[in-house]
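Notes from the 1:1 (GR / supervisor)

We went over the backlog. Supervisor wanted to see one worked example end to end before approving the batch request, so GR pasted a single chain during the call. The sequence is below; no edits were made to it. Supervisor asked that the structure be written out right there so they could see what the output format looks like.
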Amino acid sequence: MKEIEDILRLQYTDINPRDVNPIVLAYLGDGIYELFVRNIVVKTGISKVHELHRLSVDFVKAESQAKALKSIQDMLTEEEMGIVRRGKNHKMSSIPKNVGIMEYKMATAFEALLGYLYLLKKEERLRELMEKSITILMKDRKA
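Structure output shown during the call:
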């Protein structure tokens, strides 16, 4: 299929992240964060997939992502805060039953930020913010 071949030739740098809908940024950021978290939990040495999944969910659920965003807000640049605001203020079409609207909006904002940084190829900054977030969330788990 020609369309798929055309898409496969594109590189993610061909997209201007400033022009991307915040929900699309969040969709991308969700996948990036999920992969980051899965890499971390696999390194725990746990060999049961169910346990790996349960541990991953603790980090990627909306409540945790909202906490993660709060923990890194003081580190964000003005540009990054703009993306967070766009993600948080974007009109939501649906909200899961098990999470409050503000937590869900904060989680979406967090994911949008990650997607934005990924599209800008700011891998070091992306890693810095995700590592800080995970560190804070791990401290919360132990407390």
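Supervisor's comment: The helical segments are 2-9, 22-42, 49-60, 62-72, 78-89, 101-119, 123-142.
Batch request approved.
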